[in-house]
Specification:
Elements: E1 3-4, E2 12-16, E3 48-54, E4 59-62, E5 69-71, E6 81-86, E7 99-105, E8 111-116, E9 122-128, E10 133-139, E11 146-152
Parallel strand pairs: 3-11
Antiparallel strand pairs: 1-2, 2-9, 3-6, 4-7, 5-6, 7-8, 8-9, 10-11
């Protein structure tokens, strides 16, 4: 991993990973600039984001067709979790499409956007939210599901941690 910054509400997070050696039969024929195809792992056919709701209020994911979301739960209960799955890029094989989804809490919009960085193997993930909710990425790797925790007040409680999906 070249660079990683974790986000607080409204911050931009950027990660760029060096491509691993190309695997025979991986199916990805889209070469990044100057090299072998990049292995997006579990995200190759669309971003996979696991949302841990620690806010105490239900989260209602909301999206439209152009947001490039394949599936999302209708509701993520307090203290529960849900998985949002994006779509593959229609123009490039083995690459996730840019995805946007609105995570509504008490009817207030909190937008999660995951986008690729043109000309690199990097991507950005950002949440534009409203107080008193805070958003934290617990895991950040282009090859694994992204782990997003939604909190009230901005911090996990004592002894509380996010488990991988």
């Amino acid at each position: 991993m070249i660079e990683t910054r974790l986000a607080a509400m409204g911050e931009l997070i950027y990660t760029e990973l060096a491509p691993p050696p190309a695997r025979a039969g991986s199916g990805d024929t889209t070469p990044p600039p100057g090299g072998a195809p990049f292995d997006w792992g579990l995200n190759a056919d669309g971003w996979n984001v696991v949302i841990h709701n620690r806010s105490g209020a239900p989260i209602t994911p909301w999206y439209m067709g152009q947001d490039m979301v394949r599936k999302a739960p209708r509701l993520i209960r307090p203290r529960g979790r849900g998985s949002v799955r994006g779509k593959a890029d229609p123009l490039r094989s083995g690459v996730p499409a840019d995805m946007r989804i609105d995570l509504r809490i008490h009817g207030i919009s909190n937008v999660l956007a995951v986008t690729g960085v043109p000309g690199s193997n990097g991507f950005t993930a950002e949440v534009y939210g409203s107080e008193p909710w805070a958003f934290r990425f617990a895991a950040f790797d282009a090859r694994r599901p992204l782990e997003l925790t939604v909190l009230v007040g901005g911090s996990l409680g004592a002894g509380e941690r996010v488990r991988a999906a």
